[in-house]
Every structure is written in C-alpha cells, then in structure tokens.
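TA notes, week 10

Several of you asked for a full example with nothing omitted. So below is the full record: structure tokens for the whole chain, then the designed sequence directly under it. When grading your own attempts, check the secondary structure regions first.
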C-alpha cells in the first residue's frame, strides 16, 4: 500500500477488504495510477475539494416548481423542506440530495445497473457480470409500471429535481471524486440524467443486504462436508429459547388474530441428504463462495427497536426507539431530512405531507421516521426469501421433473471505461439466473453432482430432450423474491402519509422486499407491530436450509406466498410494549415457515430485562431509558464463559494479570474507563477461543465470526468438556475444554501485550475496537494522501458483536496460527479528534464508553477488532411532544469530503449522544443556521 505498506493497520485493511459493504471492495480497485496522476496534477487541494459544496442560502431557480420551497438547515446541515405540494417537495428533495450526495447516488446506480465498469474500468467487470445476471435494473424497470400513479409522479418529480441540479454543472462542480477520476479513463465522463428506475434499482441493493439465510445455506453444506451432519448441526442451533416478538395470537382462516389461541402446527418437511449428496453439495457451495460479497455483509447485520405504550411511559404517550445495524462506510447510508407542506397548503387541503426522518439519497420520501400522527421503525425480519438451486444442465436444456426444458438466454453488453466492450450470455431456469455462469469456481464443479443424485432418465428417452445432447453439467441458480417485480416503492409514500394503524398497515401491505419488522406508535396512544414482506411457501422437499435440488419438483416454491393478513401483527399488545432485535417473531405453532435462522435472542432478551427494570421503578419509561437500552454493551457470552476462565490455573504475575481483571468485571464493554481493560482482555480471549476450537476442522468460509450464533454454540460446548470440537485434530494429543481455555487465556495475554501494553491496567477496549469509515471509491486506493482526504477513522467505540450496542467485529480474521493481530506494543493513546459535543447534544456517553476519534484515514487501527457493522443511526421518538425526540446519524448529511458535515455527527454517535430531532415549524426555524429558497424559474 505505497507509503503505508508497513503500517500496523495493513492486516486490518485486508480484513476490511473482505468485510466492507458494497461497493467499496470493487471500487477500491480503481487504478492507483489514476490517483497518482491526480496528486501530481495538484487537484486535491482546498479549492478543488470545496468547489462542489452546495449553496445553502439565498435563492435558486428550479424549473418545474409550482411554488417556492424553503430549505432550512440546522447547524449539522440537516435540511427541512417546506413546500406547497407533494410534487414540489419531491423535486426539492431530489435537488438537495444531489447537492449533498450525487456522487454516491451515481455510484449506486452504476452498481445496481451492472454498469460499474463504465465508471471504474475493468475493475468493475466482475460486479457488473453478477448484477446483470441477476437483472436488478430490468426488474426495477418492470416495477415502475406496477406502481400507483401518485408514486410514479413522485419518482419523476424527484428525478426532475436531481436533473435540475446537474444541468449546466461540470463534474468538477458536482464532486471532487470526478475530478480525480477524470485524469484517468473518465476524462470525458458526463453523468446521465437521473430516472425513476435509478431510484427503484437502489431498493434491490438494500434487499440484497437483508436477503436472509443464503450464507447459512452455503455454510451448512460446507460444515457438513467438513465434520459430518451431526456435528454440523451443533453449529446451527435453533433459536427457540428467546421470547418472540409477538407473544399472543394465532392464524385463523389465513388471518393473524392477536386475540386468538395457538392451535395446530405446520412444519416444513426436512429432507435428508445422503452422505454422497452432502459431499457434492459441499463442492457446489464452495463454488458459491466465489460470488462477490461486495453487495452485502451477511452475518452481523441486524437491528433493534422498542416501542412502549403510554400506559407504561412517564409522559403518558407512546415512545419509540430504532437503530438499524448496517455496514459502515462514509458517507453513511442515511441522510436526515424533513418534508413539510406549508401551513397554508395543508389548510387548503392541497398538501398532506408532514414527515421527517432518515432518507436514502437517490430515493424520494422518508424511509424511517415519523409524521405528525404516527412514528415507525424497521428491523430485519430475516425471512428466508432466497434459495440456491443446483441444476442439471445439458447443452441448452435443464432437467426438471423428468423433462429437459430449454434454458432462457439473453446477451448483455458491458461497456468498459478505457477498454473494449465485453459481452456475456445470461442463462436462466424457471428458478432464476445461473450465477454459476459468472463464477469460475461454480463452473468447475465436478460431475460428482450427478453421481450423488437419484437416478434419472437421460438423453433421447427423456420427454422434451431434443437438442439436449452431450454431458450433463451442474449449475447453480438463484431464486429470490426481489427478482420478481413488486410495488415496494408504493409503501414509502403511503407510509409517509399514513395517519393511523389501518392506513399504516395498508401501506405495509405493499412493502414486498426486504421483509422487515415494523414497529408503530401514534399520537392517539396506540402501539403496534407488523411483519410485511413477500415470503415464499415451499413445497415439501425444500426446507430452505441447504441448496435445493433443481431437478426435483418437490423442491420448488409453490405459486403461493404467505398472505399479508397471515403475517404476525398486533395492535396494543397485552404486554404494553414490543421489542424486536431479529429474534423469532412468533412461536413454533405458527403455521407458515418464515425461517430457521433467527437471531438467538440475546439482544432481545437483554433489552426486555432492561425494560423490565425500568418498569419496576414505578416512574414510567422515559426516552433516556430507551437511549440507555440502545447503548447497553454487555457481552452475551461473558456470563457463561467468565466462570470457566477464572477457574483456569495460570501462573501468577504476567500470565494471570488479564485473568485477574475478570474477577470484578460487570460484563460491559466500554471503550475506556472502568471495565474497559477487562473487556479488551475478554474479547481477545473470545477471538482466540473461537479460532483454537474450530479453525482446525472448519473451512475458512464458515469459521466463527463471533456473532450470536457462536455464542449459543460455545455456551453448549462449555457443558461438554470432552466434545470433539475441543480437540485440535492437527496434534497427536486429545485436547479438552480446559486445555483450550488455558491456551486462549495465554494467547490473549500476549496479544494485548503486543497490541497495547505489558501492563494490563493500561488496556482499553476502545484502543482495539475502532470505527474506521472508508469512502467510495478512493478510500482504499492505496495512496495515503488520498485516503487521508476521503476517509475518516480512529473512533474508539464500546459495544461489540451480539451486544445490544452491536458495533460488530469479525472474529474469523483471527487465525489459529496466532497471526490474528499485528503491531508493536502501543500505549493505547488512540487517534486524536476534536470531539466537540455539538449544540444540543445529549446522551449517555459513559454508557457506551466511547472515545472520540476523527483521524484522517483510520489506517492506524491495530489488531482486527475493527468494526464492520454498527448502528447506522439511532432514533428516539416521543409521541407526547415530537420536538422532544432525538436522533443521530453514523456520519453526517454531506457526501463531500470538504464539507463540515461530512462526519460531524460521528463523534456524538461514538459517545452515545444524540441531537434534537426537531419537527414543528417553529422549532425548526428557531434552530435554523441557513435558509435557502428554491423558486420557480421564470
């Protein structure tokens, strides 16, 4: 990496490469030479960096507006828009999004259209081939015709606003990233006009991030091939112990009724694979690992939400909290914004929109937030909405139900900046596109697939086999609900306009993908929960847990999906609150199969425990109570593991110094202060324990990442000291639990001596558990000066994997060889930063135990505890007085590295603080820092 080749953070960057959310990994492959030329040309100086910053005061003509729109920004740059019609607000939102984040929007649309190569050259070809094969933009184009006319009008108005901003501007006026890229293969690049389909395609990227258990399908097969079916089953424990989200009700005649009693069951058939079939599926699953991971993070992505009724709150009105956990990057995925009809337009009945919250740049409306009547939040339902199908292919045919059927084909042309066009042929079965056609590994899967398959007629004896001569070869298809056109975009506008439970549920009915948990509260005093989404109903041969057999009809999906009215739903639950943290939604009696891969429930049970304590004091739950729940850092593994660690027999002095810290530890994980040294040591032990226990037998793709599933696995193993997993099969001895625990304790002691200090009292969890934010695409260019400009990092953060404050790191980066972390023994000073509290900042920094950073690139982080996913924002809504609500974003409003609002909220986020979430016109205008008027052009 050029001038940082020998830095301690280099192994961390390699780990980050494997874990970063889309599209950082491929975009980071932009030719280093381009950046060098940019540096030589001297374009990365202040004038070029500040040139694209938006105008935020005065007046701008915006063609197409029917009346002026006022854009009021606070001291964090958060815009609140006031207009006279929904169309005007949508147009103004498109303009403001483009002002702040057009480069991000442009990169997203290139990725979702499979046109990344047009922006970054050959480095984008692999991504483009996969996305074109899945056909995201083709599906989005079909969806446009399914939408309500009002939604299409909104999308077009939004696009008009984006295009009005682009009109007449050079790329240098839009983003500094274009200036750098223009010195390479993009010397004549001109952004295309924005279209409604560009906005819809972004929903596919979010659905991919939250698509369900595809990784677990692969993992089960790989684990089975490595250690056998029985031992592999230990690695995927059921999640039935946690309290479900909905604790009452049942499905009666296809409708979920909250007052009904559970009765009857319907569990999907679990087909047993022979040993040979399992081995072959392992080969196929190994091939699927070649599918680029740049479009999602997999394990570690989750969310928390809590809604409390007014009967239990201190205000007498409902409270709602939400914090979705997503991959970390800069700019962050969310942009805060308000969209308000003026009082005059609302009074005249011309405009009903009055909403604020978190938006996606590139998409109109508010995704999560509240309007004047209701508030809502999302967490990931985790429904199993995708399957990999192993297909038998012969020539231009594929086998299904004893018949050879013709493959569907189309040709896609990939344009390459600075290179020749590339053509690919996309083949599909009825199950979906063949991903194996764009994966060398999948293409090389052997004919053992056929040897393990049940005997089947072949050649000319098979009906419909004309033209299907030649050898039978395996292929892998993807069946995924998001590849079927759906009117999800209708849900966004409808939710923004909803004013009660019935209109909210009507909006949720259109929310097809990704399947989510929706929590609800309103100013009339009601709270509720609704699970929306299109969830397939599979035939009896397909349990959704492993790749399906494409040639068998019994492994198909049926033509039916779980009916919306049959999905779990409750208004004003008997408990008086709802807690969601990706755990099981309903009990095992529920008649439809949603998934077997729920979160284990450690976060949700901890949240319920904390909420119960708040209720027990008799004063009612407050917004501060919900904030403290969001910031709870207790490690879910610690209570079970620490007693065993304390029992280990270590030599006094150096060896036992870390162990001694655990004796009085309260199991929390603050970044610094009391308990931080113990947290640092425990996490180092946890990383070593996982590697020492499993890495000798499991293939790299399924090694433990430290998520909640592995907490459940190790908790069970601790009760079985001679379980085979404890033994290291690479040695002649037979190791037991106590051997492994002792070795992990000693290794962790050496790790922290190397990473921080010989004196255990100097250790802090925050020194090794850091937040680094990497920009797209220049943030991993390998040129230190460029990375210093666009990246931000060095924030020392509390929390950890599977904690409620889920700032997750990836334990699989720690190898059993002892090379997991690198770097000389540092003092633990950490990166420096301004750490300003910000006007109106509020929170419990001590609870999350964060230390502000703000270093330029984050390349100095040591070890491999670097955060890969985290709360992407935190929102706290008071329905008693919406102006008392709070919010914080992971980064800032702006996507411009030269802006003061690039990461101005990150210091506060890291300390667990929040900002006022003002809503009323009076409050917003009183806090105004800048006011811009967008006016109709003459």
């Amino acid at each position: 990496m050029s001038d940082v080749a020998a830095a301690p953070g280099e192994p961390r960057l390699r780990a980050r490469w494997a874990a970063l959310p889309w599209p950082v990994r491929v975009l980071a492959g932009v030719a280093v030479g381009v950046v060098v030329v940019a540096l030589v040309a001297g374009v990365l100086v202040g004038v070029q960096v500040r040139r694209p910053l938006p105008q935020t005061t005065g007046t701008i003509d915006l063609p197409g507006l029917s009346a002026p729109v006022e854009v009021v920004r606070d001291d964090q740059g958060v815009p609140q828009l006031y207009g006279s019609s929904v169309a005007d607000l949508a147009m103004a939102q498109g303009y403001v999004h483009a002002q702040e984040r057009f480069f991000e929007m442009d990169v997203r649309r290139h990725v979702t259209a499979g046109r990344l190569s047009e922006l970054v050259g050959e480095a984008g070809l692999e991504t483009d081939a996969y996305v074109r094969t899945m056909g995201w933009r083709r599906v989005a184009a079909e969806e446009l015709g399914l939408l309500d006319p009002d939604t299409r009008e909104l999308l077009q108005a939004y696009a008009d606003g984006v295009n009005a901003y682009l009109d007449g501007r050079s790329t240098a006026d839009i983003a500094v990233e274009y200036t750098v890229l223009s010195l390479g293969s993009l010397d004549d690049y001109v952004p295309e006009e924005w279209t409604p389909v560009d906005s819809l395609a972004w929903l596919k990227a979010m659905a991919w991030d939250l698509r369900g258990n595809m990784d677990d399908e692969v993992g089960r097969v790989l684990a089975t091939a490595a250690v056998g079916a029985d031992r592999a089953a230990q690695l995927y424990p059921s999640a039935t112990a946690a309290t479900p989200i909905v604790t009452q009700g049942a499905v009666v005649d296809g409708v979920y009724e909250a007052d009904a009693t559970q009765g009857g069951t319907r569990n999907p058939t679990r087909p047993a694979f022979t040993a040979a079939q399992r081995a072959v599926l392992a080969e196929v699953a190994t091939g699927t690992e070649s599918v680029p991971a740049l479009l999602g993070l997999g394990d570690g992505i989750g969310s928390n939400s809590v809604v409390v009724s007014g009967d239990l709150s201190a205000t007498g009105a409902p409270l709602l909290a939400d914090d979705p956990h997503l991959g970390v990057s800069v700019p962050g995925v969310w942009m805060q914004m308000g969209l308000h009809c003026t009082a005059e337009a609302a009074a005249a009945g011309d405009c009903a929109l009055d909403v604020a919250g978190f938006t996606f740049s590139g998409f109109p409306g508010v995704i999560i937030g509240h309007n004047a009547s209701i508030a809502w939040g999302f967490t990931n339902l985790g429904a199993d909405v995708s399957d990999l199908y192993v297909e038998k292919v012969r020539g231009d045919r594929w086998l299904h139900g004893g018949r050879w059927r013709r493959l569907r084909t189309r040709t896609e042309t990939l344009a390459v900046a600075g290179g020749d066009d590339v053509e690919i042929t996309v083949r599909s079965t009825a199950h979906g596109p063949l991903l194996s056609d764009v994966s060398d590994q999948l293409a090389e899967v052997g004919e053992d697939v056929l040897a393990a398959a049940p005997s089947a007629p072949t050649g000319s004896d098979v009906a419909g086999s004309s033209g299907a001569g030649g050898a039978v070869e395996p292929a892998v298809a993807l069946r995924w609900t998001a590849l079927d056109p759906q009117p999800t975009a209708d849900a966004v506008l409808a939710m923004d306009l909803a004013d009660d439970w019935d209109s909210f549920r009507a909006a949720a009915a259109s929310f097809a993908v990704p399947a989510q948990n929706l929590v609800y509260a309103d100013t009339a005093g009601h709270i509720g929960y609704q699970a929306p989404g299109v969830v397939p109903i599979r035939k009896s041969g397909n349990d959704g847990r492993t790749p399906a057999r494409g040639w068998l009809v019994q492994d198909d999906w049926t033509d039916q999906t779980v009916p919306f009215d049959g999905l779990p739903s409750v208004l004003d639950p008997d408990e008086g609150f709802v807690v969601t943290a990706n755990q099981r939604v309903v009990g095992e009696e529920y008649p439809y199969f949603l998934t077997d891969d729920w979160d284990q429930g450690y976060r949700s049970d901890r949240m319920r425990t904390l909420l119960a304590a708040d209720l027990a004091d008799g004063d009612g739950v407050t917004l501060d109570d919900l904030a403290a729940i969001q910031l709870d850092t207790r490690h879910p593994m610690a209570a079970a593991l620490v007693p065993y660690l304390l029992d280990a027999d270590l030599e006094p002095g150096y060896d036992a110094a870390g162990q001694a810290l655990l004796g009085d530890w309260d199991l929390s994980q603050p970044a610094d202060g009391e308990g931080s040294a113990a947290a640092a040591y425990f996490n180092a032990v946890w990383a070593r324990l996982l590697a020492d226990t499993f890495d000798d037998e499991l293939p790299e793709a399924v090694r433990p990442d430290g998520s909640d599933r592995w907490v459940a696995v190790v908790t069970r193993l601790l009760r079985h000291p001679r379980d085979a997993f404890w033994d290291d099969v690479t040695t002649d001895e037979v190791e037991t639990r106590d051997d492994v625990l002792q070795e992990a304790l000693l290794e962790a002691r050496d790790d922290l001596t190397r990473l921080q200090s010989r004196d255990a009292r100097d250790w802090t969890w925050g020194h090794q558990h850091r937040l680094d934010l990497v920009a797209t695409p220049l943030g991993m260019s390998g040129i230190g000066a460029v990375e210093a400009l666009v990246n931000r990092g060095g924030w020392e953060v509390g929390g950890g994997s599977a904690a409620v404050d889920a700032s997750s790191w990836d334990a699989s980066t720690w190898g059993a060889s002892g090379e997991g972390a690198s770097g000389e023994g540092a003092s633990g000073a950490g990166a420096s930063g301004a750490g300003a509290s910000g006007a109106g900042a509020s929170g419990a920094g001590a609870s999350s135990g964060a230390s502000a950073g703000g270093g330029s690139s984050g390349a100095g982080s040591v070890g491999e505890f670097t955060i890969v996913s985290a709360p992407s924002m935190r929102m706290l809504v008071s329905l008693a007085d919406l102006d008392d609500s709070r919010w914080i974003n992971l980064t800032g409003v702006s996507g411009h590295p030269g802006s003061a609002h690039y990461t101005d909220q990150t210091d506060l986020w890291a300390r667990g603080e929040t900002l006022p979430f003002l809503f009323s016109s009076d409050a917003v205008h009183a806090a105004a820092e800048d006011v811009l008027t967008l006016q109709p052009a003459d």
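Residues 86-112 form the longest helix (27 residues). Use that as a sanity check on your answer.
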